[in-house]
Batch of 2 targets.
Target 1
Amino acid sequence: MTGRQRLSLFSLVLMTTITTVGFAILSRGPLRAGDADPKQKILEGMTLPEYDARGGLIRPEGYERWTFIGTSLGIRYLETNDPPPKGPGDFHHVFIQPQAYEYYLRFGEFPEKTLFVMTNCAASKKSGPDLINKHGHFAGKATGLEVSVKDTEKFSESWAYFLFTTAGERKPSRALPQNLCYDCHAEHGQADNVFTQFYGMLEQARESHLKTARP
């Protein structure tokens, strides 16, 4: 076989291979988002923030079944001249969409459309000779919700903060002024405007990613 014949045979095999691979790709149909970007696969099925026509956030539903990341008791973020609250203060329970939490664990950042829901619960204390608990406090029913949203398409600062004054409130909430919540979170939030330092599950994940990133 001459060199020219070998070259022609090689070209024929190469063209056949390209055609076969191309046909296989076409037969699969268009690539799915999960195939093109593994990060997006994690976010499939995630509850997204919803807004009304005026841009108000509609109260998230079903957050009680989301990932529970922790509780704080009596934390007050802003410096004020008001006297400290009597007793231990309020319990704050914080929830995040399971997919957003998994994303943070895997990649060390909060994805777009992340929702944090924090319930405000008064500390209750019931004791007496006929009750089993003699000491301590427990969280009462939620009296309201505070919600933070990461939505760069909607908000120029990426994050926005909302308040629902009663637990079952259905009226959409408008974003709070920047100086009330955003500025404090931007200055003191340990990771991407989030107070991860107050929640052990998030803090542990953050430390793990920091160790991995070190040279």
Target 2
Amino acid sequence: MSPGASGQTAEILGARVIELENVAYSYGGGELLSDISLKLEPGSFHFLTGPSGAGKTTLMKLCYGALLPTAGQVRLFDAEVRALDRDDVALIRRRIGVVHQDCQFLDHLPVAENVSLPLMVSGRDLLAEGPNLKELMNWVGLTARANALPPELSGGERQRAALARAVILSPEVVLADEPTGNIDWEMSQRLLRLLVELNRMGKTIMIATHDLALIRAAKAHVQARVLRISNRRLQLAGADL
């Protein structure tokens, strides 16, 4: 498998893969996000920044249907999230790969089996997908660690395994929530290169991060839009980043 390769990308050219319109989200009686409008086009690259607690993770969850807005509309591949039933949401989520901030794995299963879990859940033939899995593990540099258990991995290895799991179903969109938050600069750069490579394959990428140095480093390799959450609202960050 070419990492993240997809035959579906052409189907969505000219469409918005994710669109938020005047979205607000409240939690515990307080408004966390307000009047958020966002359009992610096919093949685009975005950074989402802002201080801790600003709502980056919440916004990411709204972008893949894990949360419903308290006001406004969220459309995923032109489908209004509120109109979708559970099965519809599950199908759409196969088109969106998510690298979660906490990188949870099943500790009793080897890394390769953790990476392949989405294949099993979606009913794919694991034997037939074996060559694809092998190629993907090589792409993220984990071939030698395929049989290791998750607790044996370094922070950088866990993040690369999480990315492999996120793209195993060849999604059109990859959302990464603070993927470099707990790894050193060298590993951050390696992970960034993988995400840039996915974008060059036509994938839409959005990375939530507070690491401005990472954003500056990325701008040498990819044309990225930088969005900032401030005072519950979303705005374009300054060009001086």
